[in-house]
Amino acid sequence: xxxxMVTGFHRxxxxxxxxDTREITVTPAxxxxxxDNNKIGKIPASKLPAGVKVGSRLSLGQNKGEATVIVLNDxxxxxxxxxxxxxxxxxxxxxLLSCExxxxxxxxxxxxxxx
Length: 115
Prior knowledge:
The chain is mainly β.
């Protein structure tokens, strides 16, 4: 579904029943993607909020994501825009506690006309 969870997680829970426990390992391709060195950049130190340090997460603005500070000096911050789990296999331990039927989606038909 559209829960915000990675594709590999969704595939891993298929077939589970209430009470089941399962370990699901998600690869970068089915999870948070491969690391992309083109997503490394710099932000001038004058543009940084107070208190920033290496490891800080910075919001880049509405719908622009976040960056992790990887280098910091008086002139700039080196930032990594990759997801923190990019390039890694991630293992979830899942215990299915409950399961509900999804409500049937009503179908909406919309007609548009161009004036």
